């Protein structure tokens, strides 16, 4: 019976990918694959090293005559996201990833495939094979724990690689080079709140904004979708202008990198104000539907009567909470001056909870370091105005697109020669390892590319087989071209 990888080209890439998929390598469990990679390297006579974080480097000697070419770093990450369908029985710490061929696509059998970044790692390893095209000295850099927070890259130490040119192999669109990414920084606000006894006889209800599309706070922020927390604050402020309103609690959002899809508040109003409440909610909902139109087709505002809680926020706390949730920045703050359609700076008002105090988590991103500082300072300023304390977390740096990059110019030329068509250059409004690597190794010139991978991080992940050959064909020609001056 034929196997899914039979007759696929380039043979060396698929051979290594086959080894990778048989070796468990979920995030945090990269050591078996790291050891495997070092084993292959030693068999090929290459030097290897591993650092405290578990990152691995393999030093591949130059082809004869190319010893004086610049050292090029080929970089990918060892770990994969482990996701499976609920019905699939699978142990990511033991089992080999199953493969399914579907025409020009390769996918797994009910699990993530790990083409992200297994194809990148396999492609780098393929340059250890003795009979390839000419290349200069190579450093194959394999990081750990990329998927849970770029942690391997964060652990890199000076000198682990020496090359000044780096090709990151972790992008996912054929013919598209990434030349920049966003840095990020979170800020956690804590606002002291005071409570008072509920007014006896008042009507209490839970108000919910729901049905929003949410999405990734980096990649989807450009769509200008609604933030459920913000819309809830606007609704309650509108209501408070017309009726006497008590606020008992508010909560919404969850992860720092997800745009809040749902938010809810517990409120109480004086008896007899039900009609006003309904009228204002209807007007708010109609306004939001018009405002967001096709961006939020399922936006809903629901109200459910509940029993009156013993306490509510006092008036001063209520006003500060609502003002803070309305005043904190959210969404796209600036578009790139260099790359059309790319978000440069944004922030996500990601999560709000009431307990002993009100806590709000904001998550800012920018490809420009000073702009990131600027938006975090703005969040701090608004927080302090309301009386909140603000804890700014350690961030990670961005990678500002350098359209003058020598590596980029050469990549453009070689891609066009090999594939007969100009590639596209873009950047991503999310974190990449290149942001951190650029900070760890100042002055390094970087580009990022990869074959087409669809639905990474999900059991629907699949890689386009022909684009793997296109990707590797380019890499081979590119490394050869870099030996020539
Ligand atoms: Zn990846």
Describe the structure.
There is one protein chain. By secondary structure, this protein is α+β, with helices and mostly antiparallel strands. It has two domains: 11-181 and 399-482, 3-Layer(aba) Sandwich (Aminopeptidase), CATH 3.40.630.10; 184-392, Alpha-Beta Plaits, CATH 3.30.70.360. It contains eleven helices and 23 strands. The strands form five sheets. Strands 9, 11, 12, 13, 14, 16, 17, 18 and 19 form a nine-stranded antiparallel beta sheet that branches. A six-stranded mixed beta sheet has the order 1-2-6-3-7-21, with helices on both faces. The longest helix is centred in the middle third of the chain and has 19 residues, at 274-292. It is elongated and about 85 Å long. The two termini are 48 Å apart. The model has no long low-confidence stretch (mean pLDDT 96). The protein binds zinc ion. Zinc ion (ZN) binds next to α3.
